[in-house]
Specification:
The complex is a heterodimer of chains A (379) and B (497). Chain A has 379 residues and is α/β, with parallel strands linked by helices. In chain A, 23% of the residues lie in helices and 25% in strands. In chain A, the strands form three sheets. Chain A has an eight-stranded mixed sheet with strand order 8-9-10-11-12-13-14-15, sandwiched between helices. Chain B is an alpha/beta fold and 497 residues long. The chains are: A alpha/beta (379), B alpha/beta (497). The interface between A and B is large, with 45 and 53 residues.
């Protein structure tokens, strides 16, 4: 059952240091859960671990709970809530801007509809944090925002300037109509950036960029552009990133893989393995709205079936994503002081046979599977 | 086992076709025998040429050997010789010279019951097909190697593949060994689709299955009345097939009677040979004297029964309506599934399989009672609609199974690569409530049984063809990898890096 998201904070989520209050044990807003495994998210796994939550934040993760606090045992494994690096649930039409390729100051958070019914599906697949982005067909479509679909909170606005540098941003109907034109426009905006503009912010490193690029050629051009203007952030797309490991590593950029469509080649699987081996950060997009809520997990699992280790897949959907977004102080792992966004899985968190039996966001139970008890065996 | 109509052509191979009389028939038969002899020889030569090169004997060993879902042997081995499984057990010894392969788990290769692997996109998207179409006519063993390698690497070594996904009726689908495009059974299914070209198939309403990005099925003008019209058309084809089967049976009965009568008459003539010869000589002489032509005696036995006019499509549906070949109908909406069930009710031997079945839960009771199999094609890449009885999303397989309906899991995509996801889709079904063994059965022994190849593939049994997987863990676990894929007894060289 989903607690209806009603609170839409107009402000960025408060810094974790202030959220990490430590009221007395047994406080009305405290609870403790014990699971057969707790995946911290940074590679550590605590067997029979106990997670203690106070006022929506993680108070402790370890072998036991403070005295006086009753521990509820749950059947399964606890992991941080997943972070989806691009999603358009409920905002697909809001984000369509077919006449202008440059709307750099557009705040995508304004298209966030916390009441949209489809968020519940996303949450039921263990996704507790989502990056909303402008549509892929714009060049500088605006500023990405991090939202919490289950609580309805806007975690952070203006998290990155979103740049469409792929064939998707080029059409025959709206200028520019070629790659050369696309880069000419971008060059002009970045070279002549007025102080305080999103372009200037990106050049100074105050704002990250999310650059959409698909083919190897597009990726190479985007990397060169980022180097030219000293941009930090990530490439979204790059299914063949595995062939460009050195280039990507030298750029300091991360990679966000798109969810696979049925019938897509699984180049992503080889790429994920190669990036993992080389230490290039990568994460996944969910693209719900055009994809189903399980598409992100499914893509990660496709990588695993082809050799990506489970910890690598888990990190991509939790810690690495938070690092890439600059919110690792509050999100991405189950560490003291961070927001209590976590999921109880019936088995290994990245395994498709596992079910999200309980999902917590901001310390509140926001989803409980109807089949959280053992399921039927028919015949 | 198939008894009659072994192939669609077989249904129209009357022994006495073209013979005008009993005597002429004899000559024709002699000619036919010569002809067949020649064919047989040619066939033999072609056969030896086409004989796939089997590798050496294989000795597979694993901690868990899943003979069939739910039937597991611990620390067991499988011996493979000449493409067949020749031994399965816990106390086997590797014969000398056999290639040894070890893993955590051995199980039957995955089989996608609703695939387009092996066929080009033109054939897959073709709408110009009919019941007599043989998908195998379009089979391209030299097709995209990369696609087949991805399927092999994911463990999908068998498919029930069809062409014409959006064609109202698309003919015979085949069971294939995908790595080699070898045909296991060329007439495994008849396929039809209801409403596959409807705009109602858009992602926001019905899971949006229907092909790769940017591809849309045909005219956007189909409405519920059109779809019911498609069902009516399908049902009249079934009825025509039934009539054809009855006419053929009647004809075969009359033919047998006629042949018996001819034999009697021939014997009678032989017995009275001298008398008949004398009588004819006299008749000839009399005719010459009178300057007239000889009037040959007419035998009523020379009028052979009339063969029903051959109709390839009716012959195909005759096999379907007699339950010899299962009929796979792609239908998603409750309205269509209900109407299809109602209007096919009179065909008692029909083996109906619903593919897709997004809203099949609305008819779960009827599906169970009629023994209809549903090929669920979870499409996590598509957003799906509101989760509820009309579209339960990824829980569909679990809920149908709970209602007692026989469930298979397939992909049903115009892109053959989609079959690669089969084990992941089965895993997702487990994550959404389906029992683990049932999910494994839904992609191994289940499809083999539904499409009549269970005596060859789908389980790890002595005498079966060796279509097997050696895995690093549980077949459905996301962290398991295919260590070796064995197709028809040969190790598939694949992209397992």
């Amino acid at each position: 059952m989903l607690i209806l998201p009603i609170l839409v904070s107009a402000l960025a989520f408060s810094a974790p240091a202030t959220a990490a209050v430590s009221p007395a044990a047994g406080s009305a807003d405290s609870f403790a859960l014990q699971a057969s495994r707790v995946h911290v998210g940074d590679g550590r796994v605590i067997e029979n671990g106990v997670i203690v939550v106070t006022d929506g934040a993680i108070r402790s993760v370890g072998a036991s709970a403070p005295e006086g606090l009753s521990v509820r045992k749950v059947d399964g494994e606890i992991a941080p809530g997943f972070i989806a690096m691009r999603d358009a649930t409920g905002a697909d039409s809001e984000n369509n801007e077919t006449t202008r390729k440059f709307t750099p100051t557009a705040d995508v958070a304004r298209a966030f509809d916390p009441h949209h019914p489809a968020w519940a599906h996303l949450v039921s697949e263990g996704i507790t944090t989502v990056v909303m982005t402008p549509a892929s067909d714009r060049i500088a479509g605006g500023l990405d925002a991090i939202v919490s679909p289950a609580t309805g909170e806007i975690v952070k606005r203006g998290v990155a300037l979103h740049l469409g540098m792929s064939s998707r941003s080029i059409s025959n109907f709206v200028e520019p109509t070629s790659y050369a034109g696309l880069y000419a426009h971008l060059d002009r905006h970045f070279a002549d950036a007025a102080d305080g503009s999103p372009f200037a912010q990106a050049r100074s490193g105050a704002t990250r960029v999310m650059m959409e690029a698909l083919s190897k050629n597009e990726v190479a051009r985007a990397v060169a552009f980022a180097k030219q203007y000293g941009l930090t952030g990530a490439i979204i797309g790059a299914p063949e990133a595995g062939d460009q490991v050195d280039l990507l590593k030298s750029s300091g950029l991360g990679v966000v893989f798109e969810p696979l469509d049925a019938g897509d080649r699984a180049d992503v699987a080889e790429s994920a393995k190669a990036l993992r081996a080389a230490g290039v950060p990568f994460a996944f997009a969910s693209d719900a709205g055009t994809h189903g809520p399980a598409a992100m997990r499914m893509t990660a699992a496709t990588c695993m079936r082809r050799g990506l280790d489970a910890q690598g897949a888990l990190a991509a959907m939790t810690k690495t994503a938070a690092d890439m977004l600059g919110v690792s102080a509050s999100h991405g792992t189950l560490e003291v002081g961070k927001v209590a966004d976590f999921v109880v899985w019936s088995g290994a968190p990245t395994d498709l046979t596992s079910r999200a039996t309980h999902v917590f966001a901001g310390g509140k139970l926001v989803h409980e599977s109807e089949r959280s008890s053992s399921h039927h065996t028919h015949r | 086992m198939r008894t009659s109509y072994q192939r669609p052509q077989a249904a129209i191979a009357p022994t006495f076709r073209g013979a005008a009389s009993a005597l002429a028939a004899t000559a024709a038969l002699a000619m036919a025998a010569l002809h067949l002899g020649g064919n047989a020889q040619a066939g033999q030569e072609a056969g030896s040429d086409a004989e796939p090169v089997r590798s050496q004997a294989l000795f597979l060993t694993a901690k868990r050997l899943i003979v069939s879902p739910g039937n597991v042997l611990e620390n067991a081995s499988v011996l493979v010789e000449d493409g067949k499984i020749t031994a399965v057990g816990t106390d086997l010894k590797a014969p000398e010279g056999a290639q040894a392969i070890q893993g955590e788990v051995i199980c039957a290769a995955f089989m996608d019951p609703w695939s387009t692997a092996g066929f080009d996109t033109g054939s897959v998207n073709s709408r110009d097909l009919n019941a007599a179409t043989m998908a195998t006519d379009a089979l391209d063993p030299y097709g995209e190697k990369a696609v087949l390698e991805e399927l092999a690497a994911s463990g999908v070594l068998l498919t029930r593949s069809q062409v014409g996904l959006a064609s109202d009726i698309s003919g015979f689908g085949a069971v294939l060994r995908t790595p080699s495009a070898e045909v296991v059974l060329e007439d495994a299914s008849m396929s039809a689709a209801i409403g596959a070209e409807s705009p109602g198939f858009s992602p926001d309403q019905f899971g949006g299955r229907g092909g790769p990005q940017g591809f849309s099925f045909g005219p956007q003008s189909i409405d519920p009345i059109d779809r019911i019209g498609q069902i009516d058309k399908l049902v009249s084809e079934l009825a025509a097939g039934q009539k054809y089967a009855e006419d053929m049976a009647e004809y075969e009965k009359e033919l047998a009677e006629w042949k018996a009568a001819i034999a009697d008459k021939e014997k009678e003539l032989e017995d009275d040979f001298k008398k008949a010869k004398k009588a004819r000589e006299k008749a000839v002489k009399d005719a010459e004297e009178d300057g007239e032509e000889v009037k040959e005696k007419k035998y009523k036995e020379d009028r052979r029964p009339r063969e029903p006019r051959y109709d390839a499509e009716k012959a195909a549906f005759a096999r379907v309506v007699q339950g010899e070949v299962p009929m796979v109908v792609h239908a998603e909406r409750a309205l269509e599934i209900r109407d299809l069930l109602r209007s096919t009710e009179p065909f008692k031997r029909l083996r109906l399989v619903i593919a897709g079945g997004t809203s099949a839960l609305a008819c779960k009771k009827e599906l169970r009672e009629r023994g209809v199999t549903v090929i669920v094609a979870p499409s996590p890449a598509n957003p799906g609609g509101p989760v509820g009885e009309l579209d339960p999303g990824l829980s569909l397989a679990a809920e149908l199974d709970a209602a007692g309906v026989n469930v298979l899991i397939g992909t049903g995509n115009a892109s053959a690569l989609a079959s690669r996801d089969l084990p992941l889709l089965a895993a997702l079904a487990v994550g959404h409530g389906l029992d683990r063994d049932t999910a494994l059965r839904a992609i191994t022994s289940g499809p083999a049984a539904t499409f009549d190849v269970a005596d060859q593939v789908g389980t790890v049994k002595r005498g079966h063809a060796a279509d097997l997987l050696v895995l690093s863990g549980d077949p459905l676990s996301s962290s398991s990898r295919v260590l070796a894929a064995i197709s028809g007894g040969a190790v598939v060289p694949q992209a397992t890096k």
